[in-house]
Amino acid sequence: MHDDTATTAPVDATVTPNGAGQPGGEGDLAAELTAARAKAEENYNKFLYAMADFENYKKRIERQLAEIALAGRRAVLVKMLPVLDNLERALAFDDSEGLRGGLQATLRQFEAALESENVKPVTVKGLRFDPKLAEAIATQPAPAGVAEDTVLEEARKGYTIGDEVLRPAQVVVAKGHGS
After folding, report:
1. Inside any domain, residue 28
2. Residue 102: which domain range?
3. Do the domain assignments include residue 41?
4. What burial letters (b/e) apply to 108-139, b meaning 16+ CB within 10 Å?
5. What residues in the chain have per-residue pLDDT under 70?
6. How far apart are CA 103 and CA 85, in angstroms?
7. Which of 11, 49, 72, 88 is the most exposed place for a label (fewest CB within 10 A)?
8. Is the same domain home to 82 and 169?
9. Rounded distance, CA 28 to CA 66, Å?
10. Do the domain assignments include residue 86?
């Protein structure tokens, strides 16, 4: 008979297939997987919450912008109502002097309302034509002593708001020389 005890290594009773029961084995992997799934679900819920929060933020900003725009429109319209009142009063006068005075007061109110909104008239008559400030609606032969491309008449005033053109002036421009 052979003595096999000396040639074979003792079997470790704690070893199981695939390392189950050992640190880093299937039992730990299952726990790590469960923890990772829980963390993923938590992160997904945070993502959904953040997306909902962002959508609410967008809606709130849209509402605020609409309210700001409405407030701006209201402010301008409230400034125009007294002008409307004066036009109605001016039309109620029978005599031409009362009508003229009412219309002049109305014009001053309109100008003041526009000025309060930083709207200013552009004066281009007698200046060299600038297509950034005016649009030519007609040309006329340049009178003696007037350079070509000079604005001869303003058919409609132009206005700026700050540094931007709100409405270009409509002008008649000198072209060529009269004979």
Report:
1. yes
2. 21-117
3. yes
4. ebbeebbeeeebebbebeeeebeeebbebeeb
5. 1-25, 178-179
6. 11
7. 11
8. no
9. 56
10. yes
Helix (H, G, I), strand (E, B) or coil at 153: strand
Asked whether residue 89 is domain-assigned, the answer is yes
Q: Which of 120, 117, 146 is nearest to 133 (CA)?
A: 120
Contacts of 137 (CB under 8 A, 6+ apart): 155, 170, 171, 172
**Residue 101: per-residue pLDDT:** 81
Nearest C-alpha neighbor of 149 from the set 121, 172, 120, 115: 172
Dihedral over alpha carbons 168, 172, 173, 174 (to 10 degrees): -170
- The CATH number that applies at residue 155 is 2.30.22.10
Please indicate, yes or no, whether residues 65 and 123 belong to a single structural domain of this protein: no
Q: Say if strands 169-177 and 134-142 run parallel, antiparallel, or are unpaired.
A: parallel
Instruction: Judge if 147 and 108 occupy the same domain.
Output: no
DSSP assignment letter at 131: T
For position 24, what pLDDT does the model report?
56
